[in-house]
Specification:
- This is Cytochrome BD oxidase subunit II.
- Belongs to the cytochrome ubiquinol oxidase subunit 2 family.
- Keywords: Cell membrane, Membrane, Transmembrane, Transmembrane helix.
- It comes from [Actinomadura] parvosata subsp. kistnae.
- The protein is mostly helical.
- It has one domain.
- The protein contains eleven helices and no strands.
- Helix 4 runs antiparallel to helix 11.
């Protein structure tokens, strides 16, 4: 049961947050002006905070139920983990601060932070996955990290195609072809699930001794998390019609 819980949260994070990471990576391509970029950001505005809850939950499950695995991952990938956290902070700072001052330079600077932070997140996750799947470390891991990063970007474009309208939608849908936006999003989601499962099969998943205490608590919370996620998706199921609060 502990392995199922860890996989549930990790896969949920990659699929859900992978979309807003990918949108941030593609922001310069999707948004050619300040107004367009703000509309692109509106596509992920209702979701990105809730998506981050899945990462927090994954980290909590890892620390509480798999303390040995947590130690091995942090010890062997300290630089990658620190880079990931810094990129997370930079990306979120960009999202929160870009619209707080109306100046063009201010907004352009924080738009750059969103892009840099999103690429940092994607490459950090890619490097971590490369280490787990292939045993690659150091600078060479960055080359292997480009493959998962490209998957994040593709996933983000398919999500943006589902959320945007007009010319922005047409740019985002460039990868959908004749398959349709929904089907393409399902395919990129499935690809992320496969990557997560393959990584899980390579990890020494040995639960700690706190399972009997923590597992019932986590299982009780999962339905509430899923219900909240479903409510957000249902509430914001329509395409973006204008700028958001960001």
């Amino acid at each position: 049961m502990e392995i199922f819980i860890l996989g549930f949260f990790a896969i949920g994070y990659l699929v859900l947050a992978g979309a807003d990471i990918g949108v941030g990576m593609a922001l310069p391509y999707l948004g050619r002006s300040a107004g367009e970029r703000r509309e692109v950001i509106a596509a992920i505005a209702p979701f990105f905070l809730g998506n981050e809850v899945w990462l927090v939950a994954t980290a909590g499950v890892l620390a509480g139920l798999f303390p040995r695995l947590e130690g091995e991952l942090l010890h062997g990938n300290h630089t990658v983990v620190v880079t990931l956290l810094l990129a997370w902070v930079v990306r979120d700072m960009g999202l929160w601060l870009r619209g707080r001052v109306p100046g063009a330079r201010w907004q352009a600077f924080w738009d750059g932070a969103i892009v840099a932070g999103s690429w940092g997140l994607a490459l950090s996750w890619g490097a971590l996955l490369a280490h787990v799947l292939l045993g690659i470390e150091g600078p060479v891991a960055l080359l292997a990290a480009l493959v998962p990063a490209a998957l994040f970007a593709t996933h983000g474009l398919t999500f943006a195609a589902l959320r945007l309208r007009g010319a922005l939608r047409a740019r985002a849908a460039v990868l959908a072809g004749g398959a349709g936006e929904g089907r393409t999003y399902a395919l990129t989601s499935a690809a992320l699930v496969v990557v997560a499962v393959l990584a899980g099969l390579r990890l020494p998943l040995e639960p700690g001794t706190s399972g009997p205490l923590l597992v019932p608590v986590v299982l009780t919370l999962i339905p509430f998390l899923v219900a909240a996620q479903a409510w957000v998706w249902w509430t914001f199921r329509h395409r973006v019609s204008g700028p958001s609060y960001l």
